[in-house]
Amino acid sequence: MTATQGASVRNSGRDGDRTPRTPLSVLRGYVALTKPRIIELLLITTIPTMFLAAGGFPSLWLILTTMIGGYLAAGGANALNMYLDRDIDAKMKRTKNRPLVTGEISPRAGLIFGIVLSIVSTLWLGLLVNWMSAALGAGAILLYVVFYTILLKRRTSQNIVWGGVAGCMPVLIGWSAVTGTVSWTAVLLFLVIFFWTPPHYWPLAEKFSRDYADAGVPMLPVVASRGKVAGQMIMHTALMVFASLAIIPLGATGWVYGVGAVAAGAWFGFLVVRYALRVRRGLSGKALGPMVVFHGSITYLTVLFVALAIDPFVTL
C-alpha cells in the first residue's frame, strides 16, 4: 500500500468515527465483512450437489453443519479480502461504504475476525462433517486470500478467471461432505462454475470499469477492448455448457437435469452472443446491457442447480 493509499484509508476511518457507533451498527459491520449474500451461492450450489451425491436427501444435520461451515469459511475469506483491499475499496463507489473503509470496524479488528472465522470454519467442518471437507474449505480460503487477492487481483487481467477457483469449491465441499471423496461428477460441477465466473463477473466489471480503473485494478474490461472481452465471454460460456452436459454421460443424472442443462445453457448462450453482437455494433451503456448478462448468469446457475436438486427424486 502506498503512502497516499494509506492516508486515504486512515482518513476514511477518521470520517467514519464521526458517526456515532452503536453495538447494533458494529454488529452489522461484522456481518457485512462476511458478505452475507455469499450464502445465496452456497445454497444454490452446495445443497443440490449434496442431493446428487446422496441420491436423495442427506441428513438434515449434515446439510446444516456443512452450510454453516461453508458460510464461516466464505465469511473468513471475505473479511480477509476486505482487510487487504481496504485501500482500493476506498476509491470505488461500489465499495466505499464497506465497514473497514468507513471506520465502523478497525483494520486490526477486521483482520482478527477474518483469521478467527477461517480457523473456526476449518475445525467446524473437520469435527462435524469430515476432514476432507475441512481441507477443501481451508484450500478455498487460501485460494481467495492469497492466490486471488494478494497475487492476482492487482497484477493480471485474468485475475477473476483463476481467482474464481475459490468460488468453485462449495460443490467439492458439498460432494465430499456426503461421500468423503471427490468424484468426476463433482469435478465437472466445479468446472461449470469455473467457466461460469468470467461471463458472470466481466459484465459487472464493464459497468464499474471506471471504478476499477481509478483503483488501478486491471480487470479485463478495463485493459482490453469490448470485442476481446465479448469473445472471451463466448469461449467461457461454451466451455461452461460443455462441462454441464458432460455430466450426463456419467450416469449420475437423469432427464430433469438434462433438459434443464440444455435449456438453460441455450438461453444463457443466447444472452452472451447477443451481447457480443451489440459490442460489434458499437453500442454502450444501457443499450449494451451488461447487467442483463450479469443477472442472466445468476438465473442460469440457479436453474441448472435447481434441476440438479430435483433430478434424484424424479424417475421414469
UniProtKB/TrEMBL annotation:
Membrane topology (UniProt): Multi-pass membrane protein
Catalytic activity: heme b + (2E,6E)-farnesyl diphosphate + H2O = Fe(II)-heme o + diphosphate
Subcellular localization, as worded in the UniProt entry: Cell membrane
Keyword annotations: Cell membrane, Heme biosynthesis, Membrane, Transferase, Transmembrane, Transmembrane helix
GO BP terms: heme O biosynthetic process
KW Transferase (keyword) present: yes
Cellular component terms per the entry's GO annotation: plasma membrane
Secretion signal span: none
Pathway participation: Porphyrin-containing compound metabolism; heme O biosynthesis; heme O from protoheme: step 1/1
Parts of the chain that traverse the membrane: 38-55, 61-84, 105-125, 131-152, 159-178, 184-202, 229-248, 254-276, 288-310
Broad class of enzyme this protein falls into: transferase
Family annotation (Gene3D superfamilies): UbiA prenyltransferase (1.10.357.140)
Any one Gene Ontology molecular-function term assigned to this protein's record: protoheme IX farnesyltransferase activity
Main location: membrane
Role description: Converts heme B (protoheme IX) to heme O by substitution of the vinyl group on carbon 2 of heme B porphyrin ring with a hydroxyethyl farnesyl side group.
Family designation: Belongs to the UbiA prenyltransferase family. Protoheme IX farnesyltransferase subfamily.
NCBIfam families, per the entry: cyoE_ctaB, PRK04375.1-2
PANTHER family: 4-HYDROXYBENZOATE SOLANESYLTRANSFERASE, PROTOHEME IX FARNESYLTRANSFERASE, MITOCHONDRIAL
Protein name: Protoheme IX farnesyltransferase
Organism annotation: Brachybacterium avium
Gene that produces this protein: ctaB
